Amino acid sequence: MSAQIFPRNANALVWVSIIGLVLLIGGIVAALVGLYLSPWYTEVGVAKEQPVPFSHKHHVDQLKIDCRYCHATVERAAHAGFPSTDTCMSCHSQVWTNSPLLQPVRDSYQSGESVVWNRIYDLPDFVYFNHSVHVAKGIGCASCHGRIDQQHLTAKAQPLYMGWCLGCHRNPEDNVRPRDEVFNMAFDPRSLPLEQRVALVAEYQIPTDGRLTNCYVCHR
Amino acid sequence: MESAARTLNPSRLARVAWIPLCLLLAACHIDMYDQPRYTANQPSDFFEDGRAMRPPVPNTVPMTDEPPDSVMLTGRANGELAVELPMELTAELLERGQTRYNAYCAPCHGLAGDGNGVIAYRGGIQVPSLHNDRLRTVQVGYFFDVITNGINRMYSYANRIPPEDRWAVAAYVRALQLSQNVDANDLTAEERQQLGGQ
Amino acid sequence: MSHGHGHGHAAGEGAAPESIAAGYELADTRARPLVIGTISVFVLLVVTAILMGVLLLLAGNAPTDLSNTLNPTEVARQLPPEPRLEQNPNVDGDRLLREATEQLESYGWVNERENLAHIPIERAMELLVERGIAPFGTGPAQGSGQ
After folding, report:
1. A174 and A201: one domain?
2. Which of A78-92, B92-106, C89-103 has the lowest mean pLDDT?
3. Which residue of B has its CA nearest to A82?
4. Which residue segment(s) compose the domain that A30 sits in?
5. What is the pLDDT of residue B24?
């Protein structure tokens, strides 16, 4: 008889292999998902090094400067823009004039070469985004950029996944706020009752018929 | 036994099982993420100053309905500071001016215009109050001019505040001055009571 | 792992004589250790999660300051050395804004002898719309010292 005789534990090994394989595949998938959601990949909460350690906490929360003082085009254009050297110098020609931290800013003012900030929020080039429409329709900076006024060094509050954009485009009433609260970091839209927010959506004429989730709204 | 395996054919399935793994490869190219074109605020190695956003060439004239030497854009009529706004004075204009003032001027001049803004206080900048007789009697075009061209230690805000908004701020500065310096006789009896005293 | 797994059959390596006689392995799988093993892995997972939760709670707050994700030496390198100019920055800023807002929202005297008052900014804006910009610029200061 030339039949293969397996040792008695062979059956156990089969089971171990099967369960192990399932667990392994599950584990790999879970690890990939974890990686995809982790700050290592999404950069959420990870501050980047900047030429000048600019602090929003200092300038916005403590010195009470409005976002528009530095990101002046946010209401008018697609891009909020970065402050020009001139903008920093409007104060720092008189405040902290000798700080070594501000040397790059002063150099830039002298030479005319821009300070190059490392981008924190950067959508892929195949996505169209526009700040002015969101600001005009009562979506606050904090809904997308989080409590940036509490950050010493700027870090992402959002991985900027497509599902996140769509989530709000489906249910704008969850995030809409009165226009004069757009720049108020501490305002929580949910502090308003739902009916009031629905009324705001109607007042601002935000389309709720699903038009906002059409692919060409963002991929144009 | 061999033929039974053939009919079940798991090995043939196994032979194609790697195909889904190709999807992993597909996710790895990013040429559409960073397309070979310039976007706002990008650095550039093409232009000498390293900027992809181009500043307008010298002597560029803004493309608006207004001629470049109009009151709207210069704050001056025939070389003299404008006495009147180039637009109608409305409540909306003042409200617009209020938001602009609070964003761009209040850090130094203070919400009330008394020169006691947070920056002035913390940074130790000497900022003059807007409530003095000289500034109360000056033409409204003067404020426009200060915002547009700056004055001494104060920088120009022309690149951040468009001309229409500069006029709104100028008008709001007037409202601020009035609010801190009104003849009590101009008020209603009710209001005078709220003043207390007398 | 299989050593000494006597199962009523002859102990030792290799297949039992019954299996050899039959030509295939007769013994069933021993599922128990597998089930126990699997369950204990999952129990361990749950226990670990609970333990971590407890530890996080004990450690006080979750890491709320998003910005301090640079390692401490990096932070120390980027921030200016102590003492910083500001000791209690929020208090001053809030106080200045509150005072200015109060000033802008109330009625009161600026100079009672000269009959000069300050009024809420909303009211001043209404008044200004009524009067127009020009009188300020051309005439003498409104209401200053009559």
Report:
1. yes
2. C89-103
3. B41
4. 1-37
5. 67
